[in-house]
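Dear Dr. K.,

Following up on our conversation at the group meeting, I've run the structure prediction for Os01g0339600 protein from Oryza sativa subsp. japonica. I'm pasting the input sequence below exactly as I used it, so you can double-check it against your construct before we proceed with anything downstream. Let me know if the numbering doesn't match what you have in your notebook.
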Amino acid sequence: MLSFMCRTSPSRWIYGNKTDIVISKYEGSFMVMVTQIGCMGTILAARKDESVFSDPTYNVLFGKRDEPLLLACARQLIEHIR
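The predicted structure tokens came back this morning:
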């Protein structure tokens, strides 16, 4: 049976913008959604394998592909989760 847990944090004000955060945990993975406009925009996938010799990978699944700040956010998230 697939386990699913959804946890939402209260909205926060970041630089004057209301920011909603949703964290969902699946078997072996997390989904983190952050929005300041009330809907999903660009969707990123970040993965860090268990191997010591593999580097984390970051892919844009949907949306803006030329935004380095989004990849920097994905990099920071994956480093703090593991």
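Two things stood out to me. The two ends are 24 Å apart (CA to CA). The chain has one domain: 5-81.

Best regards,
J.T.
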